[in-house]
Design goal:
CATH superfamily: Metal-dependent hydrolases
Largest sheet: 7 strands, parallel
Radius of gyration: 21 Å
Order of helices and strands: HHEHHHHHEHEHHEHHEHEHEHHHH
CATH topology: TIM Barrel
Length: about 400
């Protein structure tokens, strides 16, 4: 689907309904760079698996306890149902029936991603990458180019099996990171899931190579004795982050809301303040998703020149309430520092909702400011274009 067809789908659905019609049209037509997203599940999924994908918890018991009574399910019924020829607000059970029927006609992923209105998707494959489409295939579904970011912990968890002598870890890991930036499909940045591997309330100073090599020897011995290759060693985690910083490319850091594998109070980006001070003038630090700490992230983005952030998955998980999250994300942050991401994974409904609910929220927030005379339409136009795509193009050095 062309960009005009995507814009028409957005118009037809009535996504952008703010107080200013010019702002609404801009947000219906502007194409988004999704600076952190994942692929679409490759196989057809049963109802229970889809329900699991529409909740952040990794416990099926949590899915059953929530049922269909979540903001994201209400949003799916409102916005995704009409795209598969079901009534808006169809009962969840009826949506699932319609989805199964439509999937036999056309893959749901191609349908929904092509209507999201993406200019480019920057895809991270570190989470269950084998279950979802590759960056290239995800971009093909969305009708746009794709780039990739690389999860540092995934590099380490591959290298621990491949490296013959773990004492050579420092140079080997540096070489592996450098290799990701070379070749026909170079990465445009890196990501860390430090939040899931113990949190931010620790010393994040650069470790010495000798300490890193010793840690690699210990970890390799554990893995080769049968332990799961899950990187939790503090020295190796810190080394990975600093190796990425040394490349000068953007480092994405998951912060805030996530599955129960993290302790939320240890994922507050304010805990990264010393690390942020230490990395100034070295590389952009991208605070991913940030909810419920998005106001904290906005503060950090204002205080430090190399800090950027988004509200990512909070948009689709808060559904009809996402306008509040987007509005709060725009309180302190300079608008040159705010980016769009969906953090959608697996279910293509999340890719569509990430885009459409963000557009809807922006149309209401900016339309309100324009209607009240606080902003001009030119102000709104500039900020929409910055947040939608221009900031991501600049920071990730994307082609025009």
């Amino acid at each position: 689907m062309s960009s005009e067809h995507a814009a028409q789908a957005i118009r037809d659905a009535g996504v952008c309904d703010g107080l200013d019609t010019v702002v609404n049209e801009l947000l219906a037509t502007v194409r988004l760079v999704d600076h952190h997203v994942h692929g679409v599940v490759s196989e057809r999924v049963d109802d229970a698996t889809l329900a699991d994908m529409l909740i952040e918890s990794d416990r099926r018991s949590a899915t059953r306890a929530a049922g269909f009574d979540t903001q994201v399910w209400h949003a799916v019924r409102r916005w995704c149902a009409p795209q598969i020829r079901a009534p808006a607000h169809a009962a969840a059970e009826d949506y699932l029936v319609a989805r199964r029927a439509y999937e036999r006609l056309i893959p749901i992923g191609r349908l929904l991603l092509s209507r999201a209105g993406f200019e480019r998707v920057i895809v991270e494959t570190g989470f269950q990458g084998g279950r979802v489409t590759s960056p290239a295939a995800t971009g093909e579904m969305a009708g746009c180019p794709a780039s990739r970011v690389v999860r540092l912990e995934a590099i380490a968890e591959r290298l621990v099996y491949e490296l013959a002598d773990p004492l050579t870890w420092p140079d080997a890991f540096r070489a592996a990171v450098a290799a990701e930036l070379a070749g026909a499909d170079p990465a445009v940045g890196f990501k860390t899931i430090l939040a899931y591997r113990g949190g931010f309330d620790r010393d994040l100073a650069r470790p010495a190579d000798e300490a890193v090599a010793s840690a690699a020897v210990r970890w390799a011995a554990e893995v080769h004795a049968g332990a799961t290759a899950r990187l939790t060693d503090e020295a190796l985690l810190r080394f990975g982050i600093w190796t990425a910083i040394d490349t000068g490319r953007p480092l994405q850091v998951h912060t805030g809301f996530g599955d129960p594998d993290l302790d939320l109070h240890r994922a507050d980006p304010l805990l990264l303040t010393d690390f942020i001070r230490a990395t100034e003038e070295r590389a952009p630090v991208m605070l991913l998703h940030t909810y419920p700490f998005h106001r904290h992230a906005g503060y950090l983005a204002q205080m430090f020149p190399h800090v950027y952030f988004d509200v990512g998955e909070a948009v689709h998980y808060t559904g009809a309430a996402s306008e509040v999250v987007v509005r709060e994300s725009m309180e302190l942050t300079p608008f040159t520092k705010l980016l769009f991401s969906s953090d959608a994974w697996g279910a293509p409904e999340l890719h569509l909702l990430g885009s459409w609910l963000f557009r809807r929220a922006m149309s209401r927030v900016l339309g309100d400011w324009v209607a009240r005379g606080d902003w001009s339409r030119a102000d709104a136009d500039r900020v929409v274009r910055l947040v939608a795509a221009e900031n991501a193009r600049r920071v990730y050095r994307l082609p025009a």
